[in-house]
Amino acid sequence: MSMSDSDSSHNGDFKTFRQISRERLLYEMLRSARGKDSKSTWKVLIMDKLTVKIMSYSCKMADITEEGVSLVEDLYKRRQPLPTMDAIYFIQPTKENVVLFLSDMSGRSPLYKKAYVFFSSPVQRELVAQIKRDASVFTTHWCTDFYLERTMNLEYFAIDSQGFITDHERALEELFGENAEGSHKYNECLNTMATRIATAFASLREFPYVRYRAAKSLDASTMTTLRDLIPTKLAAGVWNCLGRFKSTIPDFPQSETCELLIVDRSIDQIAPIIHEWTYDAMCHDLLNMDGNKYIHEVPSKNGSKMEKKEVLLEDHDPIWLELRHAHIADASERLHDKMTNFITKIKQLSYTISDGGELSTRDLQKMVQALPQYSDQIDKLSLHVEIAGKLNNLIKEQSLREIGQLEQDLVFGDAGTKDVINFLRTKPDVSHENKLRLLMIYAAIHPEKFEGDRGAKLMQLARLPPDDMNAVNNMRCLGGPDTKKASGGGFSLKFDVHKKKHGVRKERSDQEETWQLSKFYPMIEELIEKLSKGELPKEDYPCMNDPSPSFHGTTQQSVSVRTSPAHQPAHSMRSRRGATWARPRNSDDGYSSDSVLRHASTTRSELRVVHKLTTKLKREIILGSSSLDDPPQFITKLKLLSAQELSLDDLQI
């Protein structure tokens, strides 16, 4: 089990973020409907496309059934009338969903006997009025308190015990694309994202200090792009939602209990494309998996042939849980040791059963199959040994260690243009994707090397097609304004850089390099540590919890950025009584939480860092994002993104 899970099991009052989401759906929603005065025992659960995903990320079908649900149906599909059964609706508060619900329950032949409606996020007054106008629902088939107390405020996907996504797979396109600013999709994306982030705090019952990455230049000498203001706008949207929660959600904190930091992809353009050497990241990068689904071949029950089997690499697998954040070399060694110990154990058992006589391999297999506890162990061990073997073969075949070394040397300033050119000239057999990823990293570190026709020449040397240049240009675009022209006191992507090295990371003296190619770290690791120490510059990361009335909740042509006044440390509502963890810095009555949110997609390396720093800093850290992308997905999104910059002059108010 992970550190968070073990803590929760030993300290009954603390639950992980995913556990909280699960219990809210099962107990606060399903069980509360089950407890109403209703003669029917079993109920039907109706959900839309989004809410069914929300449910599936947190709950298993067995959990739902245990709470009295006998049937799960799609709101948008034709359904058989079940007039003797009650229905539970878990839906988004959209006009289309409300119309479908009213259609189900109106008229002389409603589909269900009674309906309990739970909305995933706050309901607009117009929709409430629309439901009230439908008298047939309220007079014969309605639970009257639904819209007052049954807004769940749970509209995110809990992808991890310490992570969630808002399901905005097209956030880059909708927020950064050509002519995106001011469009319906742009506003809808930001508003929905803000609401969903806020519902995570509704589940946690936490009210945060809201900090965000400020626009990199807000002076008259340098033009500020509208996309550079997105973290500011998102922070304002989250702040507005949290303000409403303080007056509408029972027991919601009235003072700050944690810290929220909103950043975007401009702080770290390299993490989504560099080769991350952990077991989890390598699986998703190299094995062509469908989400967490891995397909492999196993012997059939009679052993006559091989057949395909789907497995999920998720938290229910203890080996996956133990090894997912380990370096691939470390994971391989541990798997070898586990398999060796298991075989020794089985041989000792077979020796006892056979009175000292030797058993054949087939006898060992039969013995394992006859003992369910050993059968499960050997299945999981064999699966991961197979996966690790595939990964190591791919690493060797694709020369990934050499590529990975050059990537990290570029990041830390130990390699430059000559090294990239020499690699491209001497390694023509390197895959198209790996050469593109190398050039994208190079472009993020040295954008000036791609000005004029220099970028095209590098692409020609790498033998990459012209349309791949879109990904490189858009990579540079995510960095925002030209930081080279900024004054020494302004925000820079390349902060804390050694002057003698042109790198975008500094080597960390407190981080041991046990394994080769483990030096790279995502930039959020440094930001979280600075946030925990109170060292984040307020001019670069201001706080929304500012009493100025002219700033909050507004979208203006020019935004006034103010720094937060000195504030008392936030005290989390989610204390860990009896926990073995030490108290966080400056905390005297409980355990504080940090939350790091970003509007662009997150990576597996950043999710790994959240787990690592939760243990190191002894503070719970939760990472939220628009989506979780592996390198191929991120590159595809970049190719589709327009590289055209938008300025404040383009905005019409």
Provide the CATH topology of the largest domain: Rossmann fold
Q: Return the domain count.
A: 4
The helical percent reads: 40-55%
What is the CATH class name of the largest domain?
Alpha Beta
Note the gap between the termini: 53 Å
List its salient traits.
653 residues; alpha/beta; Rossmann fold; Syntaxin Binding Protein 1, Chain A, domain 2; 4 domains; 6-stranded mixed sheet; 4-stranded parallel sheet; 43% helix; globular; disordered N terminus; Sec1-like_sf; Sec-1-like_dom3a; SNARE-interacting protein KEULE; Sec-1-like_dom1
Report on the architecture of this protein.
By secondary structure, the chain is α/β, with parallel strands linked by helices. It folds into 4 domains: 35-137, Rossmann fold, CATH 3.40.50.2060; 158-268 and 595-645, 3-Layer(aba) Sandwich (Rossmann fold); 279-398, Syntaxin Binding Protein 1, Chain A, domain 2 (Alpha-Beta Complex); 400-478, no CATH class. Helices cover 43% and strands 11% of the residues. It has 24 helices and 12 strands. The strands form 3 sheets. Strands 5-6-12-11-8-7 form a 6-stranded mixed beta sheet, with helices on both faces. Strands 2-1-3-4 form a 4-stranded parallel beta sheet, sandwiched between helices. The protein has a two-stranded antiparallel ribbon with strand order 9-10. Helix 12 crosses helix 16, helix 14 packs antiparallel against helix 16 (372-397) and helix 22 runs parallel beside helix 23. The radius of gyration is 27 Å and the shape is globular. The two termini are 53 Å apart. This is SNARE-interacting protein KEULE. It holds the Pfam family Sec1. Residues 547-566 have a biased composition (Polar residues). Belongs to the STXBP/unc-18/SEC1 family. Residues 545-597 are annotated as: Disordered.
